[in-house]
Amino acid sequence: MGHLHPWIKPVLTAHRAGVMNKFGAVRAQFHQPDVDGVDITGLIEKFGSPLYILSEKTLRQTVRRLKRAFATRWPRVRHGWSYKTNYLGAVCTTLHQEGSWAEVVSAYEYQKARALGVPGSRIIFNGPLKGVEILEQAINEGATLHIDHFDELYAIEQIAQRLDKQVPVGLRLTFDTGYTDAWSRFGFHLESGAAMDAVQRIGASRHLKLTGLHSHIGTFVLDVRAYAAQAKIMAGFMEQAEQAIGCRIEYLDIGGGFASKNALQGLYLPPEQVVPSFEQYAEAITGALLEATRERAGKGKPLPELVLETGRAVVDEAEVLITSVVGGKRLPDGRRAAILDAGVNLLFTAFWYNHEVRPVRPLDGIAEDTVLYGPLCMNIDVLRSSIMLPPLNVGEALVIRNVGAYNNTQWMQFIQLRPAIVMVREDGSVDLIRDAEQVETLSNMEHLPANLQQPFPKGLPQ
Ligand SMILES: Cc1ncc(COP(=O)(O)O)c(C=O)c1O
Fold first, then answer.
1. Which residues line ligand 1 (CB under 6 A)?
2. pLDDT digit string (tens) for 86-122?
3. Which CATH entry fits the domain spanning 34-54+319-437: 3.40.50.920, 2.60.120.10, 2.40.37.10, 3.30.70.141?
4. What spacing in Å lies between the alpha carbon of 381 and ligand 1's midpoint?
5. Which residues contact 43 (CB under 8 A, 6 or more apart)?
6. Which residue is closest in CA terms to ligand 1's atom 14?
7. pLDDT over 90 (residue 1)
8. What pLDDT shows up at residue 4?
9. Closest Cα partner for 384 from 262, 251, 202, 227?
10. Whose CA is nearest to atom 5 of ligand 1?
C-alpha cells in the first residue's frame, strides 16, 4: 500500500456563508488501528479482507452491564440471548457462559441451541412458526413456549394430550404502549380481547398451564417511557389472568428492543446523546413494575421474574467489519466515491444506520463528502451515502463499527462469498470462529442431473 497519494483532479466547492453546521466544525476524524490491542492490518494479512472481528471482552462486559443494571433493581432477572441477532456459535456460547439462556424463534435456532449444548429447559421458544415436530421435542425437553396464535395453542394442547402431560405455556401479547407502533402481527391482542380469550382457553384445558406473559414492543426503542408503559400493562394483565383462571404467572418477559450506540438514519443528534443507558431502561422498567405490583407484594404474593431478550444492545458494539478500498471515482455531481470490497451483502444494517467508519491508519488530505459503495452490481449497494473522509487510496482499510447485531444472520450471499470471522479473545489471542466461504461451500449443496454434467457438447472447437 503506497502512502503517497496519486494526483487527483481538484474540485471547487462554493463556500456558502450562513449554512454552517450549528455544532461547529466537522466531527473529528479518528482512526482505529487495532481491536483490543490486536493489530488490524496483521489480521487482514492473515485472514483477508473483508473480515469481521469480534471482541470477546466487549461482548462479556456489555452483557454483564445489562444484567447488573437490572439485577440491582429487581429481585429475579433472567436474560435470554436472542439468537436471531447473532447466532454464531462463539457468540452464543460466550453469552451462555455469562448465564444467558437461549431465546429462539425457529426450529433451526432451537436445534442450533441444542447442538451448542443448551438444555431445552434453558430455551425460550418464540416465533410464529413452530412445527408440530419441533413443538413436541421442545415440550419433551422442557422448553419455555410462548404461544403466538390460536392454532398454535390448539397444536400444543393436542401434543400435550397425546403425551398425557400438562404443559406450562406463556402467551405472547401485543398492545399499544402509546409510545411505539404496536407489532400487532405477533401474539394475542390485548385491547381486542383476544389475549383474555386465550387465557380462558388455557384455563379450560387440562393439558395447559399458564405460567408466563411475553411481549416485544419493537426494536431500537429510544423512549424509555415505552417500556414503563409495557411493564405496567403486562403487570395489570397478569393480575387479570390470575384472577380469571386461578393460575400463577411466574415471569414477565419484556422482549428486546433496547437501542445500541448506532446512528439511526434520520436522527439529528448523535447516538451518544439519544441512546438511553441500560440503567435508564432498567430504572423505567423496574420503577413501573414496582408501582404496578405494590398491592400484590402487600398481599404476600410472589413477584414475577423479569425476563429480558435484549439482542442488538448486547452484541452490536462487540463486532466490527473491516473492508478495503478497491477503487475510487468522482461522481458527476462532484462528490467523491470509494468502492469497497464489502457492501450491503455483509452489512444489511447499512439500510437504516449511518455506521461509524474509521480508517485503520490516519489519513492525509482534505476531508470531502464521500459516498461509500459496496462491490455488488446493484444500485442500492451503498454503505454510507454521505460521509466526510480524506482521499481514500486503493488498499486503504476501513473499520465499520457496531456491526454485531443482525449482520451475521441477515447477510446475503449475492454474487460474493461471505468472509471469515475472527474473535479477539480476552487474553489477546485470536481465534477463527467462521471460515471464509469457498465456491465449494455453496456448490456442494447443488446437484447436477446426469444430462447436465457437461456445459457444452463434447468436441466443440475451443
Ligand atoms: C421476540 C423477540 N425477542 C427479542 C428480540 C431482540 O430484539 P433487539 O435486538 O431489538 O433487542 C426480537 C427481535 O426482533 C424479538 O422478535
1. 82, 85, 103, 126, 216, 219, 255-258, 309-313, 405
2. 999 999 999 999 999 999 999 999 999 999 999 999 9
3. 2.40.37.10
4. 26
5. 35, 51, 53, 322, 422, 430
6. 219
7. no
8. 63
9. 262
10. 256
- The tens digit of pLDDT for each residue in 326-351 reads 999 999 998 999 999 999 999 999 99
Q: Which atom of ligand 1 is nearest to the CA of 312?
A: 9
Q: Note every long-range contact of 31-35, with CB atoms under 8 Å and residues 24 or more positions apart, other chains counting.
A: 31/358, 31/359, 31/360, 31/361, 31/362, 31/363, 32/320, 32/358, 32/359, 32/360, 32/399, 32/401, 33/360, 33/361, 35/320, 35/424
Cβ neighbors of 390 (< 8 A, separation 6 or more) are 29, 359, 363, 364, 365, 366, 367, 368
How many angstroms separate the first and last alpha carbons of the chain? 39
Question: Residue 289 has which C-alpha cell?
Answer: 413494575
Q: Where does the pLDDT of residue 19 fall: very low under 50, low under 70, confident under 90, or very high at 90 and above?
A: very low
Structure-block grid coordinates of residue 351? 439500510
Q: Where are the domains of the chain?
A: 34-54+319-437, 126-310
CA distance 129 to 448: 32
Residue of 106, 109, 129, 216 to test ligand 1 pocket, by largest number of atoms within 8 Å of CB? 216
Closest CA to 342 of 332, 357, 361: 357
Residue 362 burial (C-beta neighbours within 10 Å; 0-12, 13-18, 19+): exposed
Select from 77, 229, 255 the least CA-distant residue to 170.
255
Alpha helix positions (H), 81-223: 89-97, 107-115, 132-140, 150-163, 194-203
Topology given in CATH for the domain delimited by 126-310: TIM Barrel (3.20.20)
Which atom of ligand 1 is least distant from the CA of 309? 4
Question: For the CA atoms of 197, 199, 201, 204, what is the dihedral angle to 10 degrees?
Answer: -140
Cell output for 453: 454434467
CA distances, 264 to each of 31, 122, 331, 355, 400 (Å): 22, 33, 26, 8, 15
Report the separation in Å between the CA atom of 272 and the middle of ligand 1, taken as the mean of its atom positions. 22
AA letter at 448: L
Using a 10 angstrom Cβ sphere, with 0-12 exposed, 13-18 middle and 19 or more buried, the burial of residue 48 is middle
| pLDDT band at residue 184 under the 50/70/90 scheme | confident
pLDDT of res. 182: 79
Report d(CA 351, CA 353) in Å as an integer.
6
Tell me the C-alpha distance between 341 and 376, whole Å: 9
Written as nine digits, the cell of 189 is 391482542
Contacts of 194 (CB under 8 A, 6+ apart): 188
Q: Residue 212 has which C-alpha cell?
A: 408466563
> In whole angstroms, what is the distance from residue 399 CA to residue 366 CA?
19
